[in-house]
Predict the structure.
Amino acid sequence: MSVFHLKYRPQRVCELDLPDVSEKLKKLLEAKEIPQTWLFAGPKGCGKTSAARIVARAINCLKPQGVEPCNECLNCKEILKGNSLDILEIDAASNRGIDDVRSLKEGAYLSPSRLKKKVMIIDEVHMLTREAFNALLKLLEEPPKDLFLILCTTDEEKIPDTVLSRLSRVNFTRGKEADLMSSLKKIIDGEKIKIEPAAIKLLISRSDGSFRNIQRSFNEVFLEVGKNISVKDMSEFLEKSGEYQGEEIEKDLMKNSGKEILNKLQKLAIMGANFGTLREKWVDYFQKKLLSFYGVGEKSTEGLNMVEVIRWLSLLIEAGKKEKLTELSQLPLQLAVVEFLGEKKVIVIEPKVADVEPKREEPKITKRSNDKVSLEEVEKKWSQVLAAVKPYNHSVEAFLRAARPEKIKDGVLVLGVFYKFHKERLEENKNRKIVNAGLAEVLGDEIEFECLLTENKKVITRESTAAGVTTGKTDEGEINEIAERIFS
Ligand SMILES: [Zn+2]
């Protein structure tokens, strides 16, 4: 069985997931003189490599259709197979020195062996050393006429300005909801999957905007659930597979269950998890824990002791530095775990909290006494509440995002929710605590809440124009509408 993100990889300029990128590439390829040196800048998994390969075919195609490669001629086929000598893909992360760039340059001055043009795609180009960049600069200043260079980066800040100024730039971004949706739509149609629009929305709300990651996640859901996917299926799937909370890793570290932790990280990798984000979440969790030893914030008595927390935090920071040096994105965290558990056996010092005499400070929430919270205030600060809840638990945040503050009745905030499943989850004790904490943090006052099942009413004012464009919608309305249009 083929893998979605490979099977549905865009093969033409117009098929690229980001409309802005399609537009820009079209313009560059239509130009009288196609630029020879390009920069593809943007986050991982947003189509830079796919786009670079399409460009390689477009400029080599024997029967191009406008700017599009035919994908059928000898040249296109050779490139598609990935065995053309004239298309070179180089990973700068592992070939970053001046010698590597020198041999690359030597190759660059040789004419193409069979194709019309030679194309060099240098991935993660920001990893090159300064000397290597200087060597590359000369090539960029005066590239041989048969050579095209496409430099790809996830971190253009690290590229010298002298290099940047020689490149025609194409900006890749994380996918917007509508882009991610149409990307999934291709798979849904292609595989004849029946899926509730809300299930897709849920998956998108939990994604990091990377097309590759969301396609991988969708692949996993499909393998587990099959061709009929409901909201409930999706929620359950996301709940058990996409998360690894600070609390959970702490428990696992306490249990010394290295095997279990490495396994969980391995599974997350298959899901296309973003380990940078995961690591940040853990740093955030353990930093709060560290402060708690000094009486800042909520005191937690269970879990790792102070010495262990300090060590684990510094290992997490180290792991962050290794993130860009490895192809296996889960590896830095796995190394941190192995190192920590290896050391933990010899850490026997108990935290001497009494010796440290921490100053016990009140939690940061400044309580206000008399004036009560109004619905207007809750509505105004709703996005802040979401942001406050998110570090604790992503799914609670996602459920809240789908809810709306409806009214305040007898001092209780009533949230309108559209799905019974969401209501049940939000009202679970541990989740309720998280929401309460988020509300208190933002509003400066403790307020209880309850969930009310409401109709998924269309608050959208439809002013359809002849072109089918609608205006005056809320964001939520817009995404609902797109979902309905695509999947009805
Ligand atoms: Zn062709």
